Fold this sequence. Notes:
The complex is a heterodimer.
Chain A: H1 2-27, H2 35-57, H3 63-89, H4 94-121, E1 128-129, H5 156-174, H6 176-186, H7 188-193, H8 198-225, E2 227-228, H9 236-246, H10 251-274, H11 282-286, H12 288-300
Antiparallel strand pairs in A: 1-2
Helix pairs in contact in A: 1-5, 1-8, 1-9, 1-10, 2-3, 2-4, 2-8, 2-9, 3-4, 3-8, 5-6, 6-8, 9-10, 9-12, 10-12
Chain B: H1 2-13, H2 17-39, H3 44-54, H4 69-94, H5 103-119, H6 126-155, H7 159-181, E1 200-206, E2 209-214, H8 216-233, H9 235-245, H10 247-252, H11 257-283, H12 295-305, H13 310-334, H14 340-352, H15 355-375, H16 385-392
Antiparallel strand pairs in B: 1-2
Helix pairs in contact in B: 1-15, 1-16, 2-14, 3-13, 4-8, 4-11, 4-12, 4-13, 5-6, 5-7, 5-11, 5-12, 6-11, 8-9, 8-13, 9-11, 12-13, 12-14, 13-14, 15-16
Amino acid sequence: MNKVFTDGLSFALPLLIMAVGALYSEKSGVTNLAIEGFQGVGAFFGALAATLLAPLMGNGNQMIIYIAILCAAVGGALFSCIHGLLCIRFRANQVISGVVINILSVALTAFFTSAANTAINGTASNKFVLDVSARFSIPLLSQIPWIGGLFTNMYPFEIIIIVLVIILWYLLNRTRFGMRLRACGENPQAVDAAGANVIRIRWAAVMISGALSGIGGICFAYSLIGNFSPSIYQGFGYLAIAAMIFGNWSIGPTTLACLVFGLAKSGGLQLCIAAGLPSNYTDLFLMLPYVLTLLLLVFFSKKNHPPKAAGEPWDKSKR
Amino acid sequence: MKKKNIFLARRLTGRYASLWVSVIAILLTIVTASILLLIMGKNPLTAFASFLQGCGFLAKENYGGGSGQLTDMLDFLNYLTPLILASLAFITAFKAGLFNIGISGQMLLAGFTATVLVGYNKALSPFIAKPLVLLIGLIVGGLTGVLVGYLKYRFNIHEVVSTIMINYIISYLTGFFINNYHVDMMTRNSKVCTPEARLTLTNVMIGDMKCKIPLGLIIAILIALLVSFLFRKTVLGFEIKAVGQNRRCSEYSGIRVSRTILISMGLSGAIAGLAGVAYYLGYTNTIIPKSLPSMGYDSISVALLGSGSPIGSIFAAAVVSVFQQGSNYMSSSLGVAKEIASLITGILLLFASCGNYMKYLAGRTMQQTSEIASQGSSRTAPASPESKEAKTK
C-alpha cells in the first residue's frame, strides 16, 4: 500500500510540472501539443550535462542531478523557441507546429545522442546511463498510517517541483504578469489596448512551458527510466495535456488529475503483483492510465472552458 | 537580388503556389542537411547519391548474388506503398479539419487483426486470403476512426489527445496478445504470416534477380485517384471541406456536421487500416510487439509536403521514402548514423509547415511591388525588412 503512494507521487509530480507548463502556454493563447517533444529534448540536455560532468565531479555525486535539472530547463526553453517561432512569428497552424516539433525532437535526440556517445566514449549507443537519484523520507510525516507512503522514499526533485508549482500558481493568479498572460488567451486585443505587448507575453509563456517540460522530462529520466534513451517518449507529454484538459485549465484541479493518474499507474502495477499474475500481464496494467484518461475525458470534456483565443495567431489589425 | 525576390513571390502567389512551396521546402531541407553533413565531415554529394543508390535510382558499385538495381527499386516501392496509403488517410481527415495522429495505432490494430485472422490460416487460397486481408484492414481501421470521430463530436474530446491515448492502448493490447499467444521464440516478434495472405509477392525471379512485387501499390494509386475524385467532384467531399474550413458556417448552411466528422474520420481510419495491412502483411510479415510504426508520423510530413493534395502526396511520399529507405545503404557506406533519415524528415516537416507564411510574405511582396509601380518609377523602392525576409524564407 505504501509503495502505491510512493511510486504514484513520484510519477504524478513530473507529470504535474509538465501539465503546468502546457497550462501557461495555453492560457497565453498558444495551443501547445509540443510538450512531449519539449520534455524529451530537455531531458536530453540534462542527461548530456550529467554524462559530461560525471567524470569531473565523481560518479554518484548528487550535485550533478541539480545541475542536470537546470540544464534541462534551459535546454527545454531554448528548444521551445522553435514552437514560438512557428506559432507566434510565422503564424503556422499551432496544432501542426506541435506535432512537427514532437516528430523533430524524437529524431534530433536520437541522432545527437548517438553522435555524442560516439564522441565521448566511442560507442554509438542511443542512451545515456544516469545514476538513480537518492531518496529520503520525511521523519515524522512518514509514520502516519495510510498516507505515510506519500512522504517515504521521496526524490529530492519532488520537493523542487512542489515549491515551483506553488510559485507558478502565485505568478499566474496573483501578479500583473499573470493577469496579462491569462488575458492574452482570452482577448489579446484588450491586452494590446491596455498597452502591454502580446507578442512578448506569449513568447515568455511558451518559453516557460518549455523550461517546465524540460524539468519534467529529466525527472522522469532520473526516476522512472534510470537512463536517457528513446523510451523517454512514452506519451507522458500527452498525458500531461490530458491532465490539464481534465483539470479545466486551472492549476488546482490539474494537480488532482495528475495525482489520479499517478496512483492509477502505480496501483495497477501493484495490483498485478499482488494478484500473482505473470510478468506478461503487466502490459495490460500499463494500459490503465491511458484507458482512465479516455474515460475521464469522456465525462469531463463537455463542460470545459478552454482559453477563448487559444490556437489563433495574434493579428494586431484584427478586431 | 530584388528581381529574384519578385520571381519567387510571383511563383508563390500563382496557380501552382502549393507546388512551389513544396519545392522550396525540399531545397531548403537539402541545404540544411548538407550543412549538417559538412559539419560531420562527410561529402553531402556522396551522401545524397548513396540515398538514391539505396533506393535503386542510381546503380551501386557492386551487388550481391541474386540482387540488382531492380531489387532495390522494388524494395523502395514496397516501402512506398503503405506510406502513400497512410498519407492519404491523414489527408482525408485533415480536409475536415481533423488531425488523425492515430494512424500508427490504426495501422497496428488492422495489421494485427488481419495477421491473426487470415495470416495464420493455412487453409485459405491466395485468391480468397488477399481480398479478405484488405477487407479486414478497411473494417478494423474504419471502426477505430469512427470511434475517434464519435468521441470528438459527442464528448468534445480533442482528436489529437484521444488518438494518442488509443495509440498507446492498441500498442499495449496487441503487445500483450503477441507476447502471450503469437510470439516467435527466436525473433521475439510475432510469427510470420503465410505467403498466401501476404500482399507482396516474394522471391519472384526477374532475369536472374530475386525481387519482391508489391501488389498493394496498385491499390494505393487507385485510392489516391478515388480520394482525389471524392474531394473534386462529390457532394460529400465538398461538405467535408466546408466543415474543415468553417464548422459553424457549414452548420448554418444545413450540413450535418456530426455526420460529416464521423464519415471523414471513418474513411481516414479505413485507409489507415489498408496502410496497416500493406505494411504488416506486405512490407514486413511480422509485427514487433509494443512498437508503433513510425510511418504513421512520417505520413503527416508527406501530407504536409504534398500540401494536402492526394496526387501530390504520391510524389511527396516518394521523396520521404528515398530518405527513409535509402538510409540503410547510406549509413553503411558513409558511416553516418541511420537516424539522420528521421532528422531530415523532421526538418522537411518544419519547412513545409511554414508554407502559409511563405505565401503570406509573397502576397505582401507582390502588393508592395504593385504599389511602388503605381507610384511611378521616379521614387526608389524602400528597402523594407519584410522583403528581405521573403528572400530568406
